Amino acid sequence: MSAPFFIHGFFGDGTSLLIAVIIGIFFGFFLERGGLGNATKLVGQFYFYDMTVFKMMFTAIITAMLGLFWLSYFGFLDLSLVYLIPTYILPQIVGGFIFGIGFVMGGLCPGTSCVALTTGRIDSFILILGMIFGVFVFGEAFPLIRNFYYSTPMGNATFPRLLNASYGTLVFVVVIIAIVGFVGVEKIEKKFANK
Amino acid sequence: MDTATKKISFLGTKQIGKGKSISTPQPYWNPYVAGVGLGLVLLAAFVIMGRGLGASGAFSTVVSTGVNAIAPSFGEKNEFFSTYSDQVSANPLKDWYVIEVIGILIGGFISGFLAHRFKKTVDKGRNISVRGRFTYAFIGGAIMGIGAKLARGCTSGQALTGGAQLNVGSWLFMIFIFIGGYAAAYFVRRQWI
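ok -> structure tokens follow
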């Protein structure tokens, strides 16, 4: 086991910040390359005329998922040391629903708004101001929603643990679902592109 | 010489010839190719740092740092802002995501610039005014900020990162982003189509 490198102390906090910039640069680069710095392209997902969001997101998910699986399978990466956001069922369901509404209204998500900003999209600047305002409102209202925020906790919940199924089998199932999804969205896109 | 030209055109710089303008925006990459690139960046973050990607967390750090700088007593009284600033000082990884977001800004610019896609513009549908688009963008951004805080992450930190980890909460979050988006799409269609 030699990864994760940072957790194993291969380098310090200073170097980790340099790595942060580099990872961020590649992250922003690929987002822009795929066209996700453009709000009208992003929301195509919700009107079926451009399914780039689904295609890119699920390709990225299965790429990283397969990488995680094989690297841990061969003992290179200790998965138990990779940070997992704890699951809180209801806040994450409600948060997702609210986020989705905001997403189709604003046209960009937090990461893509940064890419839109530095490629000259003025709407993204307004959206970022809105986002900062939203985070502030959330912080202000936190005492009121505190109980809900910590409700239905499940700790570090992954599907292999939850379903008591083998990691490899679930990885395989997700890949199959993604491929079926890709075939489906290609058809949908063709059907709606002419409209 | 040949490989050099190829490399440049791979990055998106338009090759001069056939009377085409050098500043014509390049087409976007195939989404599956860009998706593999994105996935490899995410995998690199897991392997090198033991953490995935993120974006909304950086905004929380900025907001709570701002609140604590402008009105320290106010920030201390508020549980959310005070715990966040405690985490900032105690946990260098909170700063890590701020620096990573600065990287996103740089990377987006590099890609857009090389492909001649940098343009001072407003992305919107034909049937809405710029002011209307700005109003939607602000409200949408605010709603998204609240949703991301409630869910403990956004499309990067939750959906993408947790999706690859087969994290139960992340998949629920992702599925409900799509449900929320499709539910609201009809009502804001004037903005886009």
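The radius of gyration of chain A is 19 Å.
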